Every structure is written in structure tokens, then in C-alpha cells.
């Protein structure tokens, strides 16, 4: 279903080239990932291209994932050159810790500048991440106005721009970068669950069924409570049909409206209405 999708329309290849060229203009990289799918929302290309730059990884939408799993990821990803912060780019939670985090990973450089008499150095940072992880929301929150175009359709941000903030950081935006093909089908599925891949190019019913399968195996109490189910069946299709009946997602004659229940399930998961759910653990 998903690993057959071939990315790399022209602008993705161009983005990769631009990131490589522009790295020399910045002191550090801020990489934004989705806290529910920390591994799947990390483009291995970014890891390769930005390997030698100090980096702050923001686990965005942290309040949609489990706190304990966020903590595990922070411990797993942190190094002396990588600082990891749980944030919510829409309401600004955790963003006040970014400058201190940059100060830590750029300590040597900032000290050298201080010795040369440069006190209030403006740190230049490149913002990277796959489409739809919240880059535009992050930039707008940091700049306190709607500079970047926000859209929950992947690929809205198109061209490079510098954005000033009031905490001594300048941000360089980049378009979202996806990769040529998914080596692991689960990566594609997780990206689809969270809306990083356009629903229009997927089989939405198959996707929702996979989501129900994951939830019944890992968060059965949450779907039982949310959809007032008497029991959790072994077959995901039975659970999906029971949810449809509970929500009145039915066609004439009482048949299940699979498309309607699929859209509803995915929307409610993405909006956090099912509670804190982590799709991946380190």
C-alpha cells in the first residue's frame, strides 16, 4: 500500500541540495520530529547531511504522545552534540528552552566569540524536518507572527527565508524533505497515520484498519473507553465495524459506511481525542 509510493519529485531533490549548500551559513540545526513517531519522522538523509552540525531535536506534539515514552526518546537520542526537547509548536510549550539548549551545544564557539569581545551573538539556525511535522507552526511561534505559510497538507513551505526572533536566534526555513523510498513499510504506515502523507494517495480504509489493529494490541482500553465498546474483538475489522455502529457510521439498510468510519478514526487519532498514544518506542 505505502512502500510502493515513490517520492522525489524535483523539489525534494532540490531541497536536499539546498540544505547541503546552506549548512555552512548556520551555527546549528533544529530538526523537528513528531513525538508519536520519532523514528519514522526522522529522515535518514537529514542525519547524513547534518551529521557534523550541532543539533537540537524537537519532539513536537509532545502532549499527544506518552510522557514516559518521550523521556525514553530524549535519553536515547541525546549526545554531546544533540540536545532533545519535548515541545508543542502550536501553543509554544517548551520553546523557551531552545536558546539554552543551543547555548549548551555551541558552548565552545560562543566562548571563543566572547573572548573576542562579541557578547550578544545571534545564533543562526537551519530548521529541517519532513512535511507536516509542524515546522511552519514552530517558525510562526518563534517569530510571533504568521511568516511561514501553515497548512496541514504536506509540502506547503516552498522557498528559503530567514526569520528573526527576539531571543537572539535567526531561523532559516527549508521545505520539508522526504526520502526516495521507504525501506521499512512501517515507516510509511506511521507517516500516513499522522497525516504526513496525503490521504488522497492512500487506501484510507486499509489505513484505518491498520490503526485499529495497532490500537487494539497496544491501547485497547483507550478505544474501548472512547467508543463505548463492550469488548475488544480479536479481528480489527470486527472492532472497526463495532465502532461504526456505535458512531452511526452506517449506510441505508444498516450497512457499515467504511469510508466514513475510517475518516473519523484517523481524524480522532490525529486530534489526540483517543488520548496520549506513542506509535514507536526506542
UniProtKB/TrEMBL annotation:
Q: Which SUPFAM superfamilies match?
A: P-loop containing nucleoside triphosphate hydrolases
Q: Which domain of life is it from?
A: Bacteria
Ranges of residues in domain CP-type G: 13-180
Matches recorded under Pfam families? MMR_HSR1
Q: Which Gene3D superfamilies match?
A: 1.10.1580.10, P-loop containing nucleotide triphosphate hydrolases (3.40.50.300)
The primary location reported for this protein is cytoplasm
Tell where it localizes.
Cytoplasm
Which keywords describe this protein according to UniProt? Cytoplasm, GTP-binding, Nucleotide-binding
Summarize the protein's role.
Required for a late step of 50S ribosomal subunit assembly. Has GTPase activity.
The entry assigns this protein to a family as follows: Belongs to the TRAFAC class YlqF/YawG GTPase family. MTG1 subfamily.
**Any idea what this protein is called?**
Ribosome biogenesis GTPase A
